[in-house]
């Protein structure tokens, strides 16, 4: 499953284990395949546009225009990110130093955590998702409990796009559990990168 309600810290710890288990195969997946899945996710979001917009309007009280912009901008983010596939495979040659040649190759780092807010949920959820996935990392996306159905739809979209099990999981949790869960995830040695958008108060905690 790629979308869940995390009922406990144990649930989230299980998600981390599953993401770590999925990482080696995903890291070995070709960049072109990863890019194709991002493009497929963009197509799925377009297909769900009306449902995503209606859910956004109902859950966060936004305008129809802002809801539509969220979906359209997220689709463009996915397509633009996928276009960097060729760049990732390029080996960078650095100037020689003392007669020694140097090369830079990019490699994935592991399991990443994205924390997305309620006020631009699809844009910021997808932004936290696109580049790490293209680069070969596995990913947990913690959605805002203010928009639970919307983040469920985002998680379902990753399933429909065809991402392998454990590669990307969108989850939400009860508001009273957020601080404890986020603290545990960030302190986990398995989580290698954190992408956060939100309030100053929560940012200081992160």
Instruction: List the helices and strands in order.
Output: EHHHHHEEEHEHEHEH
Helical amount = 55-70%
Largest β sheet strand count, sense and barrel closure: 5 strands, parallel
Question: Could you name the ranges where pLDDT drops below 50 across 5 or more consecutive residues?
Answer: none
Radius of gyration over C-alpha positions, nearest whole angstrom? 18 Å
Strand order of the largest sheet: 1-6-5-4-7
Average predicted confidence as pLDDT: 89
- The share of residues in extended strands comes to 15-25%
Q: Helix count?
A: 9
For the record, give the distance between the C-alpha atoms at the N and C termini, rounded to a whole number.
27 Å
Structural shape:
globular
The structural class is: alpha/beta
What is the total tally of β strands?
Answer: 7
